[in-house]
Amino acid sequence: MTYATVNPATGETVEEFPTATDAEVRDVIERSHRAHLSWRRTPLEERAGAVHRLAGLYRERKRELAALITEEMGKPVRQAVGEVLLVADIYDFYAEHAARFMAGERLEPSTGGDAVVVLEPVGTVLGIMPWNYPYYQVARLAAPNLMLGNTVVLKHAPSVPRSARVQEQLFREAGFPEDVYRNVFASDEQIAEIVIPAPTVRGVSLTGSERAGSAVAAVAGRHLKKVVLELGGSDPFVVLDAEDLDAVVERAVQGRLGNAGQACTAAKRFIVLEEAYEPFLEAFTAAMGAVEPGDPREKRTVLGPLSSVAARDGVMAQVEDAAAKGATVHTGGRRLDRPGAWMEATVLSGVTPRMRAWDEEIFGPVAVVHRVADADEAVELANGSPFGLGGSVHGADVEAARRVAERIESGMVFVNEHTGTAPDLPFGGTKRSGVGRELGRSGIEEFANKKLIHTPKRG
């Protein structure tokens, strides 16, 4: 496995890093365990102080950190700054609220006496993270678990090693003990054969593909390790009417093109009722066609390159398959003739089950628009996907939109806004989109021992 930064806007290899040796990987695991034995006894207010300092460092260095991931995976710099600031909010959120989450739940046992359930750390937690949100994905795992008293070993995606390395440095500068958070440039084999089987590694959190999630869950299951999996998504964006069309189209473009469409929770399937279909398709096609791919270092850029040439070519193969089998390409559908991983924003309609674009996740700036007769057909189509991560419903009648949202099989559904995230909102999916939750109170409970303490009734 090669850890290397390759600028997707130019194709230039910027820096390469060696993969860790087996001995180095084992040393990281042992050091993380020893750090846990001390960290779990560190007073909660001291842990919170370190986490708050970390949040401050992200804010102070937002432009430097944003520029790094713009170079490393192509995120437009304005979006990159937004990611950094969201990360700071996540760390501050857990530093401020962990004590409340960990206070213990008082029960009223039928047997009498006193009973309380307390949250305790379990040990080292392994994080396996993707390239598309290099800071945010880490924060979702690290913030709650470090406040809880767990330690974190982080294997980042091989294409973002510089942002992986800088985050470990930030933890040091914030005053965390050296081995409380460790980055390791490990291979997949080392993760499967050394890290997950280690007795002191008590849980695994992975954000990535279905294939990666299935492989990691299989290894973790053999070793009886808890997993949290945030996998793919093919989020429906349901449009119930043509009211306030300009706002709906604006949300649709933002929901599809953020991070060049490379988000598990990006709006991917636009399911539009008959009465709104033609005006929506016309306006949406015009808006998508007006977005010019541009230099991700420029603040005005909305759509940058994809993360790699291979990723771009994979998305183009899905578009070309659909077009060859009869789908209509309303705008886009072409690679750009320049070095790097560039393609146009694309809108497809007429996609059928015999096309890859019907039920595969499209991880790029490609929107599939479907026409349906009514809300029942919209729900049926939305739920026909093997995924169930996020989704959204848009309509002038908010209560009607909410009723449709309640029928969608998904971990998260948003009404009159595209799928989003916030530190206090639980994040996760159902079906093939994974198991477990991150953020909010749920994020601190996944890798916690929920210990019952019962005292019998006196006399």
TrEMBL record:
Coiled-coil annotation reads none
Stretches assigned to the Aldehyde dehydrogenase domain? 3-452
Domain of life from the UniProt record: Bacteria
Query: From which source organism is this entry?
Result: Kocuria flava
Q: What is the lineage of its organism?
A: Bacteria, Bacillati, Actinomycetota, Actinomycetes, Micrococcales
InterPro entries xref list? Ald_DH/histidinol_DH (IPR016161), Ald_DH_C (IPR016163), Ald_DH_CS_CYS (IPR016160), Ald_DH_N (IPR016162), Aldehyde_DH_dom (IPR015590), ALDH_GabD1-like (IPR044148), GABD/Sad-like (IPR047110)
Q: What Pfam families has UniProt attached to this entry?
A: Aldedh
UniProt-recorded name of the protein: Succinate-semialdehyde dehydrogenase
- Could you tell me the keywords of this UniProt record? NADP, Oxidoreductase
- Which GO MF terms does the UniProt record name? aldehyde dehydrogenase [NAD(P)+] activity; succinate-semialdehyde dehydrogenase (NAD+) activity
What family does this chain come from, according to its entry? Belongs to the aldehyde dehydrogenase family.
Presence of keyword NADP = yes
